[in-house]
Amino acid sequence: xxxxxxxxxxxxxxxxxxxxxxxxxxxxxxxxxxxxxxxxxxxxxxxxxxxxxxxxxxxxxxxxxxxxxxxxxxxxxxxxxxxxxxxxxxxxxxxxxxxxxxxxxxxxxxxxxxxxxxxxxxxxxxxxxxxxxxxxxxxxxxxxxxxxxxxxxxxxxxxxxxxxxxxxxxxxxxxxxxxxxxxxxxxxxxxxxxxxxxxxxxxxxxxxxxxxxxxxxxxxxxxxxxxxxxxxxxxxxxxxxxxxxxxxxxxxxxxxxxxxxxxxx
Length: 265
Hints:
This protein has 265 residues and is of the alpha+beta class. It contains nine helices and seven strands, in the order H-H-H-H-E-H-H-E-E-H-E-E-E-H-E-H. Strand 4 and strand 5 form a beta hairpin.
């Protein structure tokens, strides 16, 4: 009996309230329990000291009003902190996974996404803004931030639905996708690179021309993610060493021609 009662009252004593709907349900449940308990006690009292049905109905009405007036505000005071605490936890978690400058996924979120399915084959690309220090030195750090923001927005819009896109940090971005998207995504990344070099980024009254170097690699289901990351980073290094403003696929030569072959396949 005690165990059953404890189970019944657990949602009241230890509520888990995460939404407005759950808060309303909690208030209704607490109010209903309080009302049933109060009317039961009042009914027992009326059975012992019965005067008339008129008096009994008046007492029950008064009891109901008192319970509603007291219980609803009290249950709200108990439930609101639970909902706000949960929402605060969600906000902290979201902020811990979001890059503050661009609003994109941050490095942690990208790494977690890549490691959630360790047996899945994955494609990864790292995009690095060429000579970004020169941008900061020439135009100032605020202009550099605007460049990063703009490229982040462009990537998010272009690859929406195709890949997870985020900022690794500094002037580096990353894309993660299923390896079966290799042909389509390689062509899209190459198109993005070409579009960026022909589209100056306007910051105030200045038009800043930037280019990007890109490394791309894929892994088999049995390969660890660390290996994929290292191969992607190596492909990026090859792109920089070969003159920047180009896409390199790990284990292959320059991918510009490969992208055109993929698009034609």
